[in-house]
């Protein structure tokens, strides 16, 4: 899993570039310069079962990208293939290309650990470690870099501030993370992800376990940090997608002949305003207008 | 889990059945339920029998031998004249064998558990699990024979760097008891690791650490109380093991912590004294029960601790 | 052109030498733990087989246990084991099924009865096996029952000893029966016991069988309590009834292993091979039952 091999960076970057023809939907020339990640014909299999078929999209700076769609459409699966979390599932197999600043995420120059450090993730249910608040945030920096105690304190404070949690916990950093409320725990998980200084933040239905007030705080937080960290958020809540995102990808399911298990697919990918006002695809229209799923 | 038939179903049947049959059916159901209840109380009877077999002779024992003698001395010759009843001779040996066993079983078991939990591919797992199961199902007498016939002459006596080693010694016994416990320790520790929510492990990997850092930094602390419970159960097993110690450590009860010497533990004393046909109405015979009570109390306390710890562990995640 | 090219960006591993060395060391320790178990098992099996191989012949299998190394056999021990273990397994199994059925089907999980019996079972499971020997000595071999050192004494004691294992296995098997089976029976107006007997127990049979074979294996390999109950003896005939004297395989291994004459080591190893073969047959049966029931589901 930790293979690092010899092809030179330049040759690989060049080869991956020659494949790129800029023909990505939703991409206009102004946005192109800001693109951090892009997926081309990205499919994910679980064993022989095709879970999502050939998704193509891109993620740019200063933007929140939302993945929406009915359950089982593979939006979480695609999200998890953007930082190689699918590697942890033995049967999962990724086909297609994911580029991060021109480097193939699944190529020989990418180490899964480093990929995950660069591309952070926040999960559906808050999943703090059974440690203190401080140790939760400090876990990533401790393993990834050498910090002195005071530097580490600084990183922890900084991350907690960015996650808008500092004021609530600064007096009890040594308290167990489990003593926090659900919404606070989720912001702690965001702080934990930010503490390793990622480039992109992936969020997998981060508010599905939270009440509306806590959800509002997380959404505010997302808007505040999106200038620093491009965000991809999976949500089942269309209003949330409409409220916070700049770009939206709509996924749907289709049954492929021989098996009963439905395969997910990316139906449409565009600016959020356009997606919700005049989508091109019939299925998107019926979904966003609430007629389906 | 229990289910009750719906009210309608009962009424429907009541109307259909003649009242005599109805009556008989109710009585039959009652009888069956009572029989089953009595059956399930057999376990309680067994536990009372265990306590009941231990306590009266132990009380008699302490009327003949003072607490001061029992807990205050380090010589143990209950079956000789003049007898000496200093439990510390057996306690020191029990502690010694237990410590050696734990030094083998806990790191070995934890290592195997981490390996199975995070490193092993499905294929390796498929071979490793049955191997551990075979080891777990190995009769203790087989381990005992292995300890005395192989480990003591070929390993302990050859490699012990600090002077002479008795043929029967605490070290061989402890090492093999450790191997005997290792599979159980592995299974319990891995169960504890498995019951950590998957989301937690994913959350850790999402921060980019290596497998080792996830194991030591997240899995270990998260499963800690489960791991502690499995260590406590292992302790209890090591303390109670009789046959291996009896075969490999010999029968000289002495107050020592030297692993190269022949020793006698609480459990192996009971086995040793039980072989000889003691006269039933003698202090020597009652010694078996006194030591048995002591052994029972120690393992009982350890069990309660592990049950408590496991319960707290569950509460954290449920 | 759709990507910013930033030559400073790299996704190669940033795990430095020190971290990597620690990783390697950690993995080496894990392998050490695994190898400790695996190598010991292999050495144990090979050593025992090499030592006992010379005794694997008809004379050994048909001879009775004997204080003379050249006559030493295992027949009376094999039959003694069967006479002791089979009744122990069956009686323990019946009690276990009754207990499991009562706890799972007639009481609620949070009820006091269940909490009480659960604690009892957990406590019994943690009692060292030698203590069951004391119990047998005090109440069965001597004391109120006064059965002496006979087959039935050993059988009763082993039955009590494996009871917790049997109960846990039976409960798990019963719990694994889908609740739709029960609902189906209740919908037809069955009483609770009818439902248990006709639906739940038949469906739980494979699980109970697999689990109880593990319990029987434990009884077959157990030595400690029987040391105190007269099994540590040379017996020159097979038992013919429950009131007979007996020895069992683990105890003849023990007896041979403690003889001063080194000739007996071969007999001990030979008897181990026989015991392991019997355990193998038992466990193979369990695996076959498990696979069968999986296929039929």
Automatic annotation (TrEMBL), chain A:
Pfam families per record: ABC_tran
Any one GO CC term of this protein is:
membrane
Which Gene3D superfamilies does the record match to this protein? P-loop containing nucleotide triphosphate hydrolases
- Single GO MF descriptor: ATP hydrolysis activity
What's a BP term from Gene Ontology annotated to this protein? phosphate ion transmembrane transport
Q: Where is the ABC transporter domain?
A: 37-278
UniProtKB keywords = ATP-binding, Nucleotide-binding, Transport
Return the PROSITE patterns for the record.
Answer: ABC_TRANSPORTER_1, ABC_TRANSPORTER_2
NCBIfam families hit by this protein:
3a0107s01c2 (TIGR00972)
Record-given protein name? Unannotated protein
Identify the species of origin. Answer: freshwater metagenome
TrEMBL record, chain B:
Q: Where are the transmembrane segments?
A: 34-55, 85-115, 127-147, 167-189, 218-239, 288-310
Keyword Ribosomal protein carried by entry: no
Question: What membrane topology is given?
Answer: Multi-pass membrane protein
Any GO molecular function: phosphate transmembrane transporter activity
Q: Name one matching Pfam family.
A: BPD_transp_1
Compartments (UniProt record): Membrane
Task: Write down what this protein is called.
Answer: Unannotated protein
Origin organism of this chain? freshwater metagenome
PROSITE patterns reported in the protein's UniProt record: ABC_TM1
- Record Gene3D superfamilies: MetI-like
Residues covered by the ABC transmembrane type-1 domain: 91-306
Q: Which GO terms describe its cellular component?
A: membrane
Q: Which GO terms describe its biological process?
A: phosphate ion transport
Main localization category:
membrane
Q: Which residues form a coiled coil?
A: none
TrEMBL record, chain C:
SUPFAM superfamilies attached here?
A: MetI-like (SSF161098)
Q: Its GO CC terms?
A: plasma membrane
Q: Tell me the ranges covered by the ABC transmembrane type-1 domain, including all copies.
A: 78-285
Question: How does the entry describe its membrane topology?
Answer: Multi-pass membrane protein
Give any single GO term for biological process: phosphate ion transmembrane transport
Which keywords does UniProt give here?
Cell membrane, Membrane, Transmembrane, Transmembrane helix, Transport
**Protein name from the UniProt record:** Unannotated protein
Species name for this entry? freshwater metagenome
